[in-house]
Amino acid sequence: MKHYEELTGGEGKRVFYRAERFKASNLMQEVSPQLSLEDRSFELDDISMSGLSFISPTKAIWTADMNRDLSLKLKLGSNEIFSGTGQIRRVESKDEHQKIALELTDGYLDIPQLISKHDEISLQQRIQKGLVDNSSLVTAEYKEVISDAVYLLKSVRDTLDEVESNLTQQSARRQEQIQEIIFECEKIALNRWWEISEKAMRCVSELKGDSNAIKAAKQYTEKVLTPELVPGASWKRSYEKPLGYPGDFEVMNYAYNLSLIGESAYEKFCHLLGTSTGGFIATRMTLVKQKIAELTNKVAETGGNSLKVASLGCGPAQEVANFLKGHKQPVSTQFTLIDQDQDALSYAYRNSYPEVIRLGDKASVNCLHATFLEFLAAGALFSKLEAQDLIYAVGLVDYLTDRRAERLVQDLYQNLKPGGTLMIGSMYDSPNSLEWQVEFITDWQLEYRNKEQMLAMASSLPDTATLNTTVDSTGHCIVLEVTKPTS
Known about the structure:
Elements: E1 22-23, H1 24-27, E2 33-37, E3 40-47, E4 51-56, E5 70-76, E6 79-93, E7 98-106, H2 111-130, H3 140-166, H4 174-207, H5 211-224, H6 226-229, H7 233-240, H8 249-257, H9 265-277, H10 279-301, E8 306-312, H11 318-326, E9 332-339, H12 342-359, E10 363-369, H13 372-376, H14 378-382, E11 388-393, H15 402-414, E12 416-428, H16 435-442, E13 448-449, H17 451-456, E14 466-471, E15 477-483
Parallel strand pairs: 8-9, 8-11, 9-10, 11-12, 12-13
Antiparallel strand pairs: 1-3, 2-3, 2-5, 3-4, 4-7, 5-6, 6-7, 12-15, 14-15
């Protein structure tokens, strides 16, 4: 407890008490408050009991309004929560706007009451939004597909629950038997799952161009089908995105490790179904690992002694660890791993560094922590590095428009050594694509491209560049390979 002599009071201008100010966006986050001033609308910046400030365009002139009463109203959506008058006391010029401070001359702002009113309005809006029924926009065919998927999953759940309950806890082979049954169920269910997926993709293709119908179908899928799958860790993480971005390195690790994660047999089955769906992740990784091995052998054959490799958006970089573990090192391979996620880089480094130590001067791994915006300006990012023999980004352009992807390819190509190789991977656009499973079930939006669109990424490169595309064995990923001429 403080003594009276310790209460020092204010100093300088703080001697004059001012009512505490609050950022409007902090107090009222769900419904943005708007100021109506003399029938003109402005964004509210902050509020206090005796005044407020708002944001105005730089070209607005306020000198004629200074020190005269102006009628004002505060609104949350269509709801008026305050009316009174005020006078402009201060105009602050910012870079792209003006901040106008206004003192109330009639009435005051009851902050707790405003917050309570905001919470009441936002609750009503959430209820109204949550109960909007757009299912009439969903075609009967699509509803049937979702129903078939739910029926399949519920059949699997009932079967596995019955098996689990009938196996005694004391059975020495209980866990082994459950695992065998899960794999058996998956073999039977997976074929049906892909049939359902193909039907769903046909329905989705017919919706292209109708944004309202697509939105309704996604909402219908997330409400009806997604809850049946999220007991599986792979679906749950893809849908909930705990690191704040889709396809994080742990999702990729699920596809690499193929462990049966979960408490119940059904949870393990759903996880397995998710990793089977994401099988292209491991297949794509293997394609990159094979390319690294091919290039190291080529360097050795031509009398070289080192290969420089950079991975942009590296994630867990499993291909690097696998290459170092399983491939005889004819030359020194120097890896630079680049990612926006510090945890992904830490994992990649821990996973590969023991092999670097084992191989001595035959391998090195360096990590570069960069932002996603720096990825988009890859020319500046790679200016910090030496020219590379191989640059690959096999999951990055899934999140880029065609124009940005073309710019990325240009920048990366410039940072190749003569004779160097660039590998760019993308989700493959085909009747059997994963768009329905990824975007509609887990709300994970990606760009899907065909061969012509992949080649178009390299349309600005010199004619001397050699271009090639490969669709992986799963049929879900396409890779563009660009080779720079040796001279």
